[in-house]
Request: fold
Amino acid sequence: NAGVTQTPKFRVLKTGQSMTLLCAQDMNHEYMYWYRQDPGMGLRLIHYSVGEGTTAKGEVPDGYNVSRLKKQNFLLGLESAAPSQTSVYFCASSMDRALNIQYFGAGTRLSVL
Amino acid sequence: AQSVTQLGSHVSVSEGALVLLRCNYSSSVPPYLFWYVQYPNQGLQLLLKYTTGATLVKGINGFEAEFKKSETSFHLTKPSAHMSDAAEYFCAVSVQGAQKLVFGQGTRLTINP
Reply:
């Protein structure tokens, strides 16, 4: 049982490049989330999904897009990367919103030069 | 809307000493409260949670937290610190039926030998 798997683990981009971060969960969870973690700011929610085919904006959605074409996968895209998007990105999933216990992946460390 | 404030971005204690990490929340409805722990270069994992019922909750690794409604607090304690407790700790709040967690800024715990 792998839980929540994020790929890649590390990536370096140049300003203006695009990339997609993949999150996969094998727990049949309905809810999935993308966060960014920056020093002293905790975790901030970028986008989330309450089920296959649905997405919604979180606290800091600008510059990011997401898709949830399959229940087990949640993709985070950066169309034109900026240095301000240098961060550690975490994906999480949750079975339901009654308790909202979230399970996290190991993170993707992204640097934009 | 809910919010969380963690008092102290960095706490340092000696091995064997009491650990106390402070968390205060704001919520207009009864909250669900969580503590997550993040070890270096890893994702977050659930330490303990409070939903309803007993206000003193026990988690993994000897940690516990007490929900105090009158003080809007959910402080995390451990009677005797161990070197392996060195990590970053996040307090989070949600409410029943909510789709999202709101995280505090995090507290980095250092254990001195």
